[in-house]
Fold this protein.
Amino acid sequence: MVDNHTQTVCLVPGPIHLFWTTGVYFFFDLIEEYDVILVVDSNYKKDRKFKKVVKLAHSIYYLEENHKNLFTQHKQYYETSKNVIKKHKPKFVFQHNHVCPFNIYLFNMSKKMGAYNISFQNGFQHECPQTEHLILKANHISLIKQHSRLRSMQPVWLIWLRVTLREIYSYYFNYYLIPILLTKKPLWTPFDPVRHSIKRGIRRHNHYDLRLVYTNEEEIKTLTENAKNILQIKNPILDNYREVQKYIYEDTPRMKNRIIILPDGATSDYLFLEKKLKSNDTILLLTEKWTKVIKIISKKFTNYEIGIKLHPKQENDKIWQQVISNLKKVYQNLVNYPVREDASRLVIESKIVVAEASTVLWFASNLEKDRILISLNLFDLPLADAFASDQRINYFESLNNLKKFALKRVGNAQTNKHQTLNNLLKNLDN
């Protein structure tokens, strides 16, 4: 624990994979001027690299998951929020999520105590009801698929009904019944769980005093979401990623002649429920598409190592395990990186990054080193065209276009005209 500063900030960086693409760089900037309170989920304890971060934090609160007892879970959320705000009295509170129960408790508590609530762009998805609805829908599909595997003899419609009823039950308990018992008030959310849609006539509920983005495109997209008080800053990663990498890994990363492929974690679920494909057909389609991608890319860039890394949630996905096995039969030299490997580190070390629409691709576009970034719309997933207008990324909606067109390298993601994070906070404090 470090205690060097007179003011405190609270940082809630979200899931562990987002910490390594955004949160850790915010953290290293903030500890230069502030004592930083981190609030993270219990999965962070399993990450060996995070133990080095623990040494630099003023204090850390871990949120333990308790799916069996929602009341106990909410009580922990509420008590943690109260402890963070009343005990440490942070001047600034950084969050990126405004719909999860804990985040809402913390917002409400910090607002009462006069803290400055700041949202920051954390990954490629712009936080708004529309985007969050797509994420919830993807989670809904994933749940149905999981239950289908467990209850293979039951019809899909019955599994869908069971999952949907459970989600409705969870919604009313999480946002109404339990919060009212704890605080005498419900928690606000923009979603209608019955229709799996956004509530009619909804306007963005603005918890934030300030919304931080890094590029003109992000500012434009955020403006279309009814967000207010938007400000561009210099992404901290531009100034400190070498320092961060050296501290975490005890070395300085070097770019290699490597092509790293990062498939979307939701693809197999989407093909199963939305496209009505059976497991074998899904395996064949995924194998066919990615075989063609590797063939095209390897011809454009000879003598490059080609590696593939799946999303952590695909660790036990039998469909993707078979797809990887099929790909390795065609390309014996294909490197299959462990799903728990740090994707951000692989991206930093690779000259070419191939993905669909993912946070690691967004992360790569914020680095200052020239590299080739490729976004592929292979299956027309929701948000698959997220990078269609991003000048830093080569976007292709077909493999024919990937084959035909030349690929451009990205330069600096930003200019130095934007103020740094700490300069912004100093100005807000004056």
